[in-house]
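Entry 12.
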Amino acid sequence: MTTLAKAELHEFISRHRYGVVATTHADGSSQSALVGIAASPELEIFFDTIGDTRKAQNLRRDPRISMVIGWDNEQSVQLEGVADEPKGAGLATLKLVYYAAWPDGPARESWPGITWFRVRPRWVRFSDFNRAEGAVREIEL
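Predicted 3D structure (tokens):
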């Protein structure tokens, strides 16, 4: 297995506007949702949601999260990490990155109960089934 540079991985993730988020419900069952995403150069993944959704409640109860991003040209990123709802400077940074990817982001602030999540990956794998060798590459964080 070969490694992948953070910049190369960021470039791939940034080409994608959506990701699938998997969380665990209080009863132990899994739940998934499609979310609009943005990524920082540090590979933090940002998305917004309404704060009283089951997805948001699941992440507050258990912040562990899995995501799949992309499946174009037989390539995808799978990651596992921890989600939080940043405040202060962290939230300001999140919004800068998110609004660059989603120009309607500032209008969402008027939505009742809107909140933003940041996912800090702990494990990332890039799958590229076009490569004869090294189809799966991991990145150390």
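Annotation: The chain has a mean pLDDT of 88. The domain at 2-139 is CATH 2.30.110.10 (Pnp Oxidase; Chain A).
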